[in-house]
Amino acid sequence: MAKETKISMAVIRRLPKYHRYLAELLTNDIDRISSKELSERIGFTASQIRQDLNCFGDFGQQGYGYNVRDLYNEIGKILGLDKNYKTIIVGAGNIGQAVANYSKFEKLGFHLQAIFDKNPKLVGIRIRDIEVKDVDCLNSYLAQNPTDIGIICVPKEHAQMVADIMVKHGIKGIWNFAPTDIKVPDDVIVENVHLSESLMTLSYRLNESNLFNE
Amino acid sequence: MAKETKISMAVIRRLPKYHRYLAELLTNDIDRISSKELSERIGFTASQIRQDLNCFGDFGQQGYGYNVRDLYNEIGKILGLDKNYKTIIVGAGNIGQAVANYSKFEKLGFHLQAIFDKNPKLVGIRIRDIEVKDVDCLNSYLAQNPTDIGIICVPKEHAQMVADIMVKHGIKGIWNFAPTDIKVPDDVIVENVHLSESLMTLSYRLNESNLFNE
DNA sequence: ATATTTTTGTGCATATTATAACATATTTAT
DNA sequence: ATAAATATGTTATAATATGCACAAAAATAT
Predict the structure, then answer these.
(1) In angstroms, rounded to a whole number, what is the distance separating the alpha carbons of residues B66 and B60?
(2) Where are the domains of chain A?
(3) Looking at domain A9-78, which CATH architecture does it have?
């Protein structure tokens, strides 16, 4: 039976990976899988897989394993992929445009409604049939158009200001690409994508072996 | 004194954040900081900060704290930011272009040498003064131009093939934006940026509160 | 000069996370 | 039908990671 305890972030961050591997199994017409076999593909221990899944329900069957389609659907539901989110992007520079054009986006239920920028050269251009609006219109836009998700792709200097406007208008989830930590109330979720941190980690690991042994 | 034990990934992933906050202190002309004060800014406990830093050396002084510039430089060195890496990007689509134009890139020592794509519409265009080459030239390019880092920005179907070519030519670090796990030998470091996983995590957390309590 | 305050580095306790072990249920083979 | 094999859910154990507490050192105040 599903546990009622708080799920740890470690577990949550593994869920998308389960979802991805299950999708792959589906495309290969594999309709059942054991934790052991999934373990060999995904690289987690079978025990961890079973324990992770058991946080949410008894999806498997002893002696059989897991039904791939059912489990895929269940995890999709757990991840909220059956929901739809009205989404905006603020910042139409390189990253903003890449995110806007990111096709997987809509499949996950994130529906891009508007894009904002303050650069006059970008205001007016169309990205995926959406005309970039001046960021001065952000406040009035949000006042008139209830929005679920805000994506921040502006330079770090403006990130907090943009976040404040989003929060003011009831946005409950922020996907933050600005290389800074933004402050929001407890009921607002911020998911950061800090590219430079990722790159620094790569840099560290490249040098790791020779750090002490020379 | 610095410990010789293996540093955990948890610690490593916090280092860039220390680096970022110290940079901010520097721009504000703050030249010393205690673990307690840094703790209040960065949101980790003071104890954790001291313990993290002590993995690498005794950078602080009792009764004084840490010298901001020294610590910033030390962490930079630990992260390998004083090194230079010859870098290529394979895949000049939205993400590839965004990464290529990502300015912080060069500052961290990653020098973009070449960009490849297989789309004839992209081959030949210039991104940051670098002409996009046909991906068919990747093999011969790498044979002639020793390269440290490969950035994979191709669709998932081609990611493993690109990675194999990179590995064959001695690339030791891969920054992977393709939404798949690539297999490489043990001595090659892969750092993944899985945007859809990040987005799914955001989606989960948005729904988390109502999962069980309704 | 001395006392007080600050603050580190580190040992220890606690909490969290991951793995192993196993009883139980189901499937498959004979 | 019965036995053997498979594979879950769950409990027990091990491994990691975090936080607390304090002696020792340096800075600051008196």
Answers:
(1) 5
(2) 9-78, 85-197
(3) Orthogonal Bundle (1.10)
A9-78 and A85-197 agree in CATH topology: no
* Mode of pairing for the β-strands spanning A60-61 and A65-67: antiparallel
pLDDT tens-digit profile of B10-57?
999 999 999 999 999 999 999 999 999 999 999 999 999 999 999 999
Tokens in use for A109? 């239920």
Residue B214 scores a pLDDT above 90: no
Task: List pLDDT tens digits, range B156-197.
Answer: 999 999 999 999 999 999 999 999 999 999 999 999 999 999
The DSSP output letter for B176 is: E
Residue A43 structure tokens: 């690289």
Q: Considering any atom of strand C, list protein residues whose CB lies within 7 Å.
A: A 8-11, 44-45, 47-48, 50-51, 61-64; B 1, 33-37, 46-47, 50-51, 53-54, 58-66
CATH code reported for the domain at A85-197 = 3.40.50.720
Q: Helices A94-101 and B94-101: crossing angle, nearest 10°?
A: 170
> Which of A206, A210, A213, A214 is the best mutation test for B, with the most CBs of B within 10 A?
A206
Q: Output the DSSP codes for A143-187.
A: HHS--SEEEE-S-HHHHHHHHHHHHHTT--EEEE-SSSPPP--TT
Number of neighbours of residue A42 by Cβ within 10 angstroms: 20
3-state secondary structure of A207: helix
